[in-house]
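Entry 14. Structure prediction run on the chain below.
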Amino acid sequence: MVQKLDPQCISKFGLDNVFLESLFKCLSYLSEERDVPLLKAAYPCILDLIATKRQAQVRANLYERVFKDGIITGFSYAGQKIQFLPILLTHIPQLYHAMGSIGVQYLKALIPELCTALSMTSSNNPKIKDINQFAAVSLIAVIKTCWPRIPHYRGSIMQSLAKTWTHYYNAKDQDMCQLLKQVYRVFESACQGQEATDREALIQFNPTVFEPLFCK
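Output returned:
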């Protein structure tokens, strides 16, 4: 519905702010299964409305509000509910691209959540693989945006990456292995050698499993 409306019209009559405040309230619906469709629809709508704002600073402030009040709060209340995780993870790349360096201040809260989502494993639940994929893509975006601060989190990132890689390498899932190699390459570039000790330790621990992850 939002996409069909004239941006100038909704802005002129102040409807954009009315819609935004209503949608922001929807981001807190994280308790029941019936909340999933509403939450899933709310994020694209709110992002579409923000894009209609002409002032860059206004857009930036709203994107940050979505991330803080939606994503971070969502992880706090629903981080262990797998039905909500894909919704929370899906929009992180877009939000970090929009926030830029502002996103650095949220790394302490975000990186552990991404690492937890990345390292979830299950041999019989396809939803877990989706969560792993969304977490990997989000982690790539976050690392690229905030790369100077990433070495501070290298232990957590390497640990979750190693666990997930082991699972999918043993499962012979080539698509996931390629995605995880992308994560490592971006991570390696950000760390600029500071991850080398952990890398060598993993290779010594199990060269058969880990050499394929680290090879160029």
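The two ends are 47 Å apart (CA to CA).
Filed with the rest of this week's runs.
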